[in-house]
Amino acid sequence: RIYARAGIPQITPSSTSPKIAEQGYKTFFRLIANDNALGAGLAEYAHDTLHVQRVAVVDDRTAYGQGLADVFSAKAKKLGMDVVDREYTDDKATDFSAILTRIKADHPQVIFYGGMYSQAGPLVRQMRQIGMTARLLGGDGICAPIMAKVAGDAVNGTICAQGGAPLSELPKGKAWRARYDTEFGAAAFQLYSPNAYDAAMVLAHAMMKAGSSDPKVYLPYIRHIDYDGVTPSITLSEFEHGVKVPLAVEQVR
């Protein structure tokens, strides 16, 4: 709201809540899929690829986690899957024994977790400790290398999704990552570092095309930018306020 009132463009590389764009800010753009696409896409994957019929849903009650879980749950029901349990935790929890005991009795084939890797790791580890064989599914919040460190071998079989293809599969991805690691070190890399780079470059290209660094002058150029970035080619419009990107579903390793 502050950026919009000031007329300053905001391009997010990682904010996935649909509610931001729904407020109609003409200065807001995003370079990734929103939670509606992530949640619905994972439900479709569970149904079409994993052939799941029974799912349980857990979220951490944050805006991100609950929003993602709500979309997954609604889409799962629409596809005819049975949501056998819906549980809630918080973003600081480490003990999921009570939740998992209830869920285990309902025999789900998949547990969808709306939240981050810091809780998803202990969750899947405790699932295996009590003999649960259900897969764990989650959004981009668990698509992080550290997830495997937190969960250990229990992470095997866990599925996550993010907006856009993995960096390793993008034409410019490997070369860009090599330059990034040389400049900042491999430890500095995060999931949406390429998107943050492209967001900055979109702003720079818009300023160059406008011949001005005045937001009022270069804002129209952002809406019609055509930029070949590290992530898929970027085309933003005033109406979409975002790019259409593929959904990458992958196993956490």
Task: Give short descriptive properties of this protein.
253 residues; alpha/beta; Rossmann fold; six-stranded mixed β-sheet; two-stranded parallel ribbon; globular
Describe the structure.
There is one protein chain. The protein is of the alpha/beta class and about 250 residues long. It has two domains: about 110 residues, Response regulator (Rossmann fold, 3-Layer(aba) Sandwich); about 130 residues, Rossmann fold (3-Layer(aba) Sandwich), CATH 3.40.50. The protein is about 40% helix and about 15% strand. The protein is built from ten helices and ten strands. The strands form three sheets. It has a six-stranded mixed beta sheet, with helices on both faces. It has a two-stranded parallel sheet with strand order 1-2. A two-stranded antiparallel ribbon has the order 8-9. α2 links the parallel β1 and β2. α3 packs across α4. About 5% of the residues have low confidence.
Short description:
This protein is α/β, with parallel strands linked by helices.
